[in-house]
Every structure is written in structure tokens, then in C-alpha cells.
Amino acid sequence: MNSTHTRRRRGGRLRNAFLLLHTAQAFDFSSFGKKPTPKKKTFQESFETYKNKINLPEDAGAFARGTLAGIALSVFVAVGPVGDSINTEGREAREAAAQFEIVLDALDKRYVDRVSPKKLMESAVEAMLATLDPYTEYAKSTQASDMIESVEGRYGGVGLVISGKPRDSKDPVKAMKSGEVDVAVVDAYEDYAWEAGLRPRDTLLSIGGSTPSGTSGDAVLDAARSSLRGKPGTDVSVEYKHPWETTTRSTDLKRFAVRRRDVELVTLLPSPTAPKVVAYARVGGFSRETAPELVEGLASLRYDSQKSKLEGVIIDLRGNPGGLLDAAVDVASLFLPPDAVIASAGGRGFVRDATPSGEKPKKGEKTAEAEKPERVEFRSRARGVTLFGVAPVVVLVDGQSASASEIVAGALQDYDAGVVVGSRTFGKGLIQDVSPLPFDGAALKVTVGRYYTPSGRCLQELDYEKERALSSKKEVSPKESFYTVNSKRPIESGGGVAPDVVVEPDTLTKAETALLRSGVANKFADDWVDKRPDMAKTLYARGLEPDADAASLVLSRSDLDSLKQRALKAIVDDPDSKNAQEAKREVEDAFRRHPDRILKVTDALVKERFFRSSALLKAQVSDEKAVVASMKLLSDRAKFDAILAPPAKSAASAPNAVAAAGLGNAARDASSS
Known about the structure:
Blueprint: H1 2-22, H2 43-54, H3 87-110, H4 117-129, E1 137-139, H5 141-152, E2 155-157, E3 160-166, H6 172-178, E4 181-188, E5 203-207, H7 217-228, E6 235-241, E7 249-254, E8 256-258, E9 263-270, E10 277-283, H8 290-299, E11 310-316, H9 325-333, E12 341-346, E13 376-379, E14 393-397, H10 404-414, E15 419-422, E16 430-436, E17 443-452, H11 464-467, E18 481-483, E19 490-492, E20 501-502, H12 510-517, H13 520-530, H14 533-544, H15 557-573, H16 580-593, H17 595-607, H18 613-621, H19 625-635, H20 637-644, H21 666-671
Parallel strand pairs: 10-11, 11-14, 14-15, 15-20
Antiparallel strand pairs: 1-17, 2-8, 3-4, 4-5, 5-6, 6-7, 9-10, 12-13, 12-17, 16-17, 18-19
């Protein structure tokens, strides 16, 4: 009786928390006391209160400190390195290092031809690391800079991605080697160079008053990058030309601490049960500011709560390769109970720092327990109100959702906090630590452990120790049965996160794939734009608008026929084409069976030259099969709850069932209201 009463009180608190967040979009205010004066309610009005209540730390996404990569974390957080604690291992490492130094010194002094000790060392290290997993890497100076940049998620620059465009199209390889290249814009980031008017395929004629030059294509690009980058707050002048114009433009680009937003889109989608709406957030990566970005994005959503109601939230992690472990923990914290265990990590670099009795061992004292590997828990740092149990949540994943994405999806699945929809994830359950090396700006990324979801699952797909002895790469880690925290639903470890609802992505035909990979579709889009300067100017002007609508098609069916003829001609002109007739039949078949899909893909290639990536994503997402299936599921609350409900036969007696320590069923009660 008392426990039931406690659960009801907890459920009431979560309902009130929901009111703070959603201002009665999903519940009626009249059920909770005095009804406010009718007016338009928005996420913004309530999210300011919510953000104060949730109390994510100011260093959200950075609590592990240090320079980290992948789903990296510092192994020195609340743990200690094993290092030389085992004398035999330390001695073996010292002997191997001394032996290598002797060999390197002998080659440097006595080899018949002059050698580069640095190159020999790099070759030896790369060969050594090749015997390990593919995520353990030695990075040279430029690579190390890029690696650390990807971890930090920002750099001082203008927000341009550039490449070399050979001036001699007949012999591009020779042009690249000799430095006869123009600097072309591959991408212009939103909020940075995009806002100054630069677009993909623009040519940079001068930077800072001089034309980038060099003895090779790489040297030209390095010179251009160095000129564009600099201290945030400073300016750099550039002259550039759009491909559809003959005139030269100039502008001063302001340098920022540039970062590509991980939260690529946050928007409201119309539910199948209109006038209800669904909040949708696309998360493309995990860096230090992902969680704050997600909170701010949700806070910006607005709709009339008197006419509509929030039906649920979709967190889209498809194609998300991962990022920082701590950023994933902070994102998961938004949807889980405060102080929830979101992930744990274990490996040789993790040791117990206390004896079984709880007392720390005396200085110099070693115990058998202290030398055993220990899992370090990463708990939610959110305090106060979170979104756990207050609105239905769907997590979208696919085969390219990896590492940090799998932590978020796995944690929400383990706590029965959301339904995972899509296809099985990549299966990367390894943790990397990045350490700068003392010379030449190099760095070393080392796999230091494995991570586990709250139920204890390891999601690692490949067993690399076994894989090295195999010709095939399909060896997987053993699958074990685990159970979710609240409902005790059975789930498996190994091989990524298996979705609760399987929705396989549309598969392109062989001909469609070739159309994209060969560059035929991309070249068609280039030519289409270049031959229509007036249309290009119109699209350019439309793309400048803050809320530009990129939904309407630019291409027509007649353009589709031109694309098909170009694809067929490319097959005939290809000297390496062995089965030209079969390839032509496949192209004809693809254009006959999937004309709308091919038209949309090629149309997007044209529009990406003029519209912000967020506008293009918004135009495409509502028609995607997995998103449509997710909205349909959210509109059927009975079906949604049934997926997360305990199995018919009680799993409490199952040998591997996970105890829901301290959680009870409060959030599940609130979710069912």
C-alpha cells in the first residue's frame, strides 16, 4: 500500500514536470488545478523553466576532460592506469622499446643507403598497430590536428570546406601534381561562410589579397587553409566567383570558432492524427555542445497549444557515427531519470581504487581485488526535471549509427524509456583515448576499453582478436541475453542495438548506386545549373531567405529523361565496361521502376548548391519511410505502450534479470497516464 502510494506521488511529480516543459500540450491543465488564462503556449515559454530545473552542468559534454575522440573517455577519471603495476608487463615493454631503439640506431648509422629514422619509425608503428583493432591509430601532424579538431568540434576559421579543382580537365592527375589547380568550395557551413554568400562549387580567386599557390595541389590547398584560418574575431578578404556568373565577387569573411552543428534539424512534423504534432530532432554527431544544442533546439519549437497537442518526440540518430562518450551521456540524461547509470566502461586501464570493505588500500599496498579490471559507471548529471516518462520517445537508428549513438539508443532501450525503430546499429563498443605525442605534433589514439549499456550489454560487433585469424570479417562477439530495467524485456548483447520495430531503409538498385557513385548525376546537376544562369540567380536568392522552403521540385520529368540518356551514354563511353548491354538494361529498368526516387535524389543535388542543409533535410524527412513509421507508431499509444510493456510471462525470475535499483515504476506510471 505504502509503495503504491509512493509510486503515485512520484508519477504526480513527473506529470507536473511535464507541465513545466510542455505547457499542457499532452495533458489538460484542468486535471492539475486552476486553468490558466487561454493564450498561445510555446516550448520556449516552458523550456526556460525546464532548463533551470534540469541543471545540466556548464561543461555539458566535457566532464571526462582531456582530448578525446570516437566514443573516447579519459581512462584517468575516477580510475588509475594499470601501467607498471604488474612488473612483468612493465619489464617486457621496456625491453621491447630498448630493442627497437637499438635496431633503429643501427639502421640509421650502418645501412648501405641513407635512411630517414622518422619514416622508419612511422612505418614500424603503423605495422604494429595494424595487428590490433582498426580504431587504434598513429596520426601524423596534419592528421593529428584533424583528429583533435574533430574531438573538440571547433576550429578558428570561416566555415568553408575546400578542395583542388584541376585546371586541365584532360589530365587532372598531372595538374594536381604540378599545382595547376583552382581552390573550389565543397561546402559552406550555415551560420558562417554561407551567410556571407559563398556556395558549393564557387572558386576562390584570392584570399587575403593573394592567390593560393604551391608546387603541388596539396601545397595549394594547405596555403589556402592557412590563409582562411586564424584567430576568431579577425577578418579575411576573399574574391570568389559563382559558376553561373562571369563577374567576380568580393567579401570580408569573419573568422569564428567554427563548429559544425551536431543537431542538424529540430522541427515539428504533422502527426497522422492531426492537429497533433511530433517534435523531431536529427543528431548527426556527439561533441561537447550536442546536449545544449538539443535543448536549445527543442526550446525554439512553437505551436498553438489551444489547437494542437504534442504526441511524442523522435530522436533521429541514423547515420550518426558517434563522438564523445560524455556528450552521449548528457544527451541520454535528458530522457532518463536523474542519476541513472547510462553507460559503464571496462578494460585493463581500469582498476578498483578501494578494498572489498570499502576502505582505500594503504599507500604501496596491493590486493588481489585492486588488480582486477573494474567497470567505471557514467551516470546522468541532470538534476531535477528530465523528460523521462513524460512523453513517448522514438529513437531512429540504422547500420551507420555507431558508438556514442549506440550508447544513447541502448540506454533508452534498457530503461524502457523509448522505442528504438529502424535497423540494427553498427556495433562499435570500443573506447578510444587520444594522447598527443612529444614530437612533430603527432598523436596516438588507443583503444583502452569496452563500454556497456545499463543492463550490462556490450554492443561490440567484431571480435578483432579472433578476426585476425580469419579471412572473413563476420566474426561477432558472443550474444548473451539481458533484460531491460523496468519491464524486464529480453534483449541481446553483441552486434549493435537491435531495434524494437524493424524498418529497413529503401535499397537503391545497382544502377541507381552507379548513377551516384560514378558522378553522372552530380555532373548532370552541375551542367543543369550552369546552363540556366537566370534560374540559378533565382534559386540563389531563395536560398538566402532564413526560412527558405526547399520542398518544391526544381527538376521536371523531361530533365529525368535527359539524365537517363546521359547515364546510357556514360556506359557506352566507359572503356572498362565489360557488360555494357546488361548495364544499359539495368539503367532502363531503374528509370522505369523508380523514376520518382531518381528525380528526387537528383533534384536534391541541384538544390544543395543553393539551400541550407537544414532546409533540405526538413523538406526530405517527413517522407522518409522510417520517420513515417515512427509517427504512425506515436499516433497509436496502445501499440507504443505494448512494445515497452513487460512480457506476458514474468521475467523477474530470469537468471540474468537486471534490478531496477531505486527507480521503481514511477516514470512508467506517468507515461501511461
